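Attaching the record inline, Q. Sequence:
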Amino acid sequence: MKGELPMRRHYVEYFYPGIFLSESSVEEVSHRDFDRIVMPERAFAFSFFDREEVEQDGETLVGKPKNISPKCYEGKVYTLDEVKKAFPEAETLIFNMEANGWERVVKTIRGNWQPLEEGDCVRG
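Structure, as predicted:
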């Protein structure tokens, strides 16, 4: 039996604080509009991705994520100088910013720190 044509689906991935690394959950959405996303409780960021899916012989075959968007955080942006002034006790963060060349970080609404990459947005 032949499969159907692949269908591109849109997804949002939400990020949550974890013990060592961020945890995440994924749900299908009908759009890729940053302004229309309401994050679930405990989430601090999200990003979009697409993937191709096709039904074949009663089974759904799922492709790899593609067209991955930058992350959108909820929180406040700080430069290295601002972190040094406002959070001098955050020695590990300051060291990581200097060692990794991070120009800006975000303190998320959940209290964790994340480096900002090119294209990332911050709401809040």
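The chain is about 15% helix and 40% strand. The radius of gyration is 18 Å.

More tomorrow.
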